[in-house]
Amino acid sequence: MAPIERLHALDALRAAMMLLGILLHGVVSYGPTDFGNDWPIQDPNTHVLWDLAAGFIHVFQMPVFFVMAGFFTAMLVERRGPGGMFRNRLMRIGLPFVLFWPPLFVLSRTGTDFALFHAETDWRGALDEVWRELQTGGLFAHPSTIHLWFLYYLLHFYALAAAVYGASRLLSPAMRNRAITLLDGLLLGRPRLLVLTAITGASMITMTSGGLDTDATFRVGNDTLTAYAVFFGVGWLLYTRRERLASLERFASQNLGLGVASVLVVGWMRGMQFRAEDPTTHAVSTFVLALATWQLIFGLTGAFLRHANRPNTRTRYLVDASYWAYLVHLPFCCWLPGMLRDVDVPALLKAPLVIAIFTPFVFGSYHLFVRSTWIGVLLNGRRYPAPLPWKRPAGTGGV
Known about the structure:
By secondary structure, the protein is mainly alpha-helical. It has 13 helices and no strands. The longest helix is centred in the N-terminal third of the chain and has 71 residues, at about 50-120. The radius of gyration is 21 Å and the shape is globular.
């Protein structure tokens, strides 16, 4: 199959998932559910709407992103070979992780600790406690990949993909085609929802969150890494069998509708809780949730192919800005809930207020300090002109 030109729809879909991740982190502090160490910040004023929004986004946001990552990685391998792909990904994923993780970890951890201390004392006392932690080094007692865990996972997947691709070259073309045809029939053919639901449901059944866990440790070989590898692999296979994209586009509405319905069924089974208490209910609802995940993956992919697969300068701008926006947003989502803790505003208004405060900083910093600088080259593969691009043809951007 001949290489394809870049699909604007899938670029937009990947960016939309990153922007939804920002939204999720912006509202999660204002729901009534206690997420423990996964997200310890909780405002005194809460509303169940934000739990429902965060829970729904979490069902599909990162799974869709990793499917798209696998798709574009396969495209890079076809264009540049496994070595060229890996070098490109080290520059665009590995180097940003190394450069941005230290300051983002410090800013996010201090913001989280400030919010927690502020729940027990006034803001001056909270700041004193944060400063004491910085001085004693206690802040670094338990380092994590924070929200950059997805970059850490991707680096593992790129190395694995390069190794598997290299090993596959040892097979004859006929054997490779038979293997790909077998995988295509299982994972993208008629039984795809049944097979993929079984695989993802089995990986989720032992997870503690009631869905796909987020493991922000530096461990290798954890269950979450393995679960997300499936999404990445399906994205890769989808590129090799990209004639399947037409089917996803044709059945987009059905998949989206069934995906939303499946999420509602899970909510009904669990009583709108993230995890059911009864083991049988938990097991059944977990597999229904896995089904919903894949229905939404296929439905959103098809919907974007149908409605967003054309050049658009405004969409292109958001696509290019999304990587930077996701990188730098988390400290705001940690510090602002603590700083606004004593502001007695209903949670329905407070979460949008937090997002409204940090959004200009996130996108303004991209336009002023990233888009036309070496940072933009690092993240997006090219340096864009500083003026807003509304009157120019849409650029192609980077992979």
